[in-house]
Specification:
By secondary structure, the protein is an alpha/beta fold. Helix content is 26%, strand content 22%. Bound molecules: pyridoxal-5'-phosphate (PLP). Pyridoxal-5'-phosphate binds next to helix 9. Belongs to the alanine racemase family.
């Protein structure tokens, strides 16, 4: 019996999605985002598998990067928010990490770095073109760039980047405005550029430049959902599955689960699945969220508990203990589950907890 919540990781789907990125952006290099444990898929598994096919990896925290280095990953590794404190610089240099520089504080720390670290740091300079989160003001770019170039510790080829706030909104004019501002700032500067996340890789070819930065699409999630792009068929890398641990006949009028929020209108059978918010299944998934039992779509009913969920199998169901349940993945779009939980697939993937068994499959 397979009662344990398991995330199958389909490595061939990862290959397929990366090939699709390269097909959409044939002239560019690929910085694959591995932050948050590779969106819940296992950073080391993904890093090992993409070794040699992605040009660089991006993470958000220095600990994520050091863990990859200590496991023997030699691919260029970029800290997407750079360093948070100058005290991290020795570690960054020791582990040969690349940094995003997005503010004056970081620049000053580099200017103050001892001259023994000649050319020790590869820098990606971030401009704020409208996200208003990280990045220097566009008008500061020329002087900032010159000051960075003057730092002895900073390597020659600085890459200039920005981040899009709305690449998943095809009708919005925010992205064209950000692209225009980015182009204005960069002018005819002799440096590589990077702007596109997954949404932009799929929908905004004019944002591709020399480096693209796919995250969620590598893992098979369509950031444009429910819109799809012709010829772009992503494959889910994770299938989250578990199994039935009880089948309980109930009568019309019986209610199910905490708070007794669901009451059966007619006699039926309730299936209890060994997965809950303690595994990362979203507690806010509403009644009716689809769940696949033996490949058949049935609705979630009652509240999601820590270790279990309940589904309405129907009065005539022959489902039994041990039967296969898919929560999302190959046969059930995670985007659809996310929609039912009023969140995004990104969050569902990142929320997978440590007790979920990871099964890495080559198919
Ligand atoms: C996470 C991240 C991305 C990838 O975004 P997706 O929407 O997952 O493709 C790209 N660039 C930066 C700076 C990021 O932090």
């Amino acid at each position: 019996m397979q009662a344990i919540a398991t995330a199958d990781i389909h490595l061939n789907a990862l290959d397929h999605n990366l090939a699709l990125v390269k097909h959409l952006t044939p002239e560019t290099k690929v910085l694959a985002l591995l932050k948050a444990n590779a969106y819940g898929h296992g950073a080391l598994t993904v890093a090992r598998h993409l070794n040699g096919s992605a040009d660089a990896y991006g993470v958000a925290r220095i600990d994520e990067a050091i863990a990859l280095r200590e496991a023997g990953i030699n691919t260029p590794l970029v800290l997407m928010e750079g360093f948070f404190s100058a005290t991290e610089l020795p570690l960054i240099i020791e582990h040969n990490l690349q940094i995003v520089v997005h503010c004056e504080y970081q620049l000053q720390a580099l200017e103050a770095l001892s001259s023994e670290h000649i050319n020790a740091l590869k820098v990606w300079l971030k401009i704020d073109t409208g996200m208003h989160r990280l990045g220097i003001e566009p008008e500061l770019f020329p002087t900032f760039y010159q000051r960075l170039k003057a730092c002895q510790s900073v390597q020659e080829n600085i890459i200039v980047i920005s981040h899009l706030s709305s690449s998943d909104e095809l009708q919005s004019d925010v992205t064209p405005q950000q692209i225009a501002l980015f182009n204005d700032c960069c002018g005819s500067g002799d440096f590589e550029r990077s702007l596109a996340n997954s949404g932009a890789i799929m929908a905004w070819p004019e944002s591709h430049y020399q480096w693209v930065r796919p995250g969620v699409m590598l893992y098979g999630v369509n950031p444009l959902y429910p819109v799809s792009i012709d010829g772009v068929q992503l494959r889910p890398v994770m299938t989250l599955r578990s199994s039935l641990i009880a089948v309980k006949p109930i009568h019309a009028g019986d209610s199910v689960g905490y708070g007794a929020t669901y009451t059966a209108r007619e006699d039926t059978k309730i299936g209890v699945v060994a997965i809950g918010y303690g595994d990362g299944y979203p507690r806010h998934a509403k009644a009716g969220t689809p769940v696949l039992v033996n490949g058949r779509k049935v609705p979630l009913v009652g509240r999601v508990s820590m270790d279990m969920i309940t589904v309405d199998l129907g009065a005539d169901s022959e489902a039994k203990i041990g039967d296969y349940v898919e929560l999302w993945g190959k046969n059930l779009a995670i985007e659809e589950v996310a929609e039912n939980a009023e969140t995004i697939a990104y969050e569902l993937l990142c929320n997978i907890t440590a007790r979920v068994k990871i099964d890495v499959l080559s198919n």
